[in-house]
Amino acid sequence: MSTSNAKASISVMEENWSQEPPFETQLLNTGITKADQKSFESLLPALYRTFHDDLAAPNLQDSQWIEKELDLSRLTKMFNYLWLAGRPMPPRPLHYQLILGRDIMVTEQMDLHLVWSSNRIMLKPLPRFLLERQFWLRYLTCRDQCGCPIHAKQSVQSDQAECNQRLRWRAATGFLFSYAALICFESDFRIAQEKHLIPTTITWPSWRSFVQELDTEHIYGKVNSRFLYGELRLGRLSKIHRISQLSLRGYSQAWNQYSTFFETNFALIASVVVYVAFILGAMQTGLATGDLQDSNTFQSATSGFVLFSIFGLLSVTVLLMLLFLLIFASNLVGTFMYRKRRLRNISSHVQSWSPVV
Fold first, then answer.
1. One domain, residues 124 and 266
2. 312-353, pLDDT tens digit by residue?
3. CA distances, 196 to each of 105, 106, 125, 208, 234 (Å)
4. Of 93, 109, 146, 297, which one is least surrounded by beta carbons within 10 A?
């Protein structure tokens, strides 16, 4: 092949990068052909929860379940603030997560993948269908008549100009990239299999080949912008979500019952009270000494701090109670509205059924 032809081939590959899966290695060795629908279905989840909270079997003719599997919309909306929750670097390997004392928790939500809090990190297992090239060619690549800007270079903020197929391609590629970072060493590979994060039929040599084909050094323009960041702190994500989305709810459920809300917040207040009591005791001791007893400045500072302690703690307690009432009212209204919407949706499926109110 001449040099000019080689350059032309490389140019075409770069321009049409999303028309092919980002890997060649067949990790599963399923032997699936393009028309083999039965084999495709064997790679899918048994059921998935629809946007209306119905349980349905994945349908290859309906892309809704794929949208649910690869949904990163919440993180995409908060992308400009993600630097507050994590660093723009690949996630650290699994063995290092264990060194940090983090337990690996399985989640099936893509937007909770690599989110951590205190001593745990949530990871989404690698689905079998994302390891099958024929699945990518059929469901994650642009159609021939797609109006996507194929010849345009990828950028962090280019999501809106792309079709759903390409957006899913980028999310799936970013997900594979995250696993390339999590499983760098054979020890990471063994941990991933023990935690059931990857299929047990995959071998270490084939995984090495698979990862090398991803070309991780030049992958950043081909992934969803969320995967420019690795591990994200849940507490900070919740704060970002509340402020940027004007929502009382955090990014993920922080309290499973109201008693936990009081335990968390009033434990902090109790710690502050102990610290304040220590300072007030020191001030009282100071007032008993001759030098400080005659100091107007010290007496004024003591009086000010006493008033600040009383009204400050009282104000914080009142604000917490108001926040609790606001959350309680929000949950009550939300539950009522959800119940109404859910029963209406159920009745639409079963025309002869009417809910008992």
1. no
2. 888 988 998 998 898 889 888 988 998 998 888 888 877 655
3. 11, 9, 7, 18, 23
4. 297
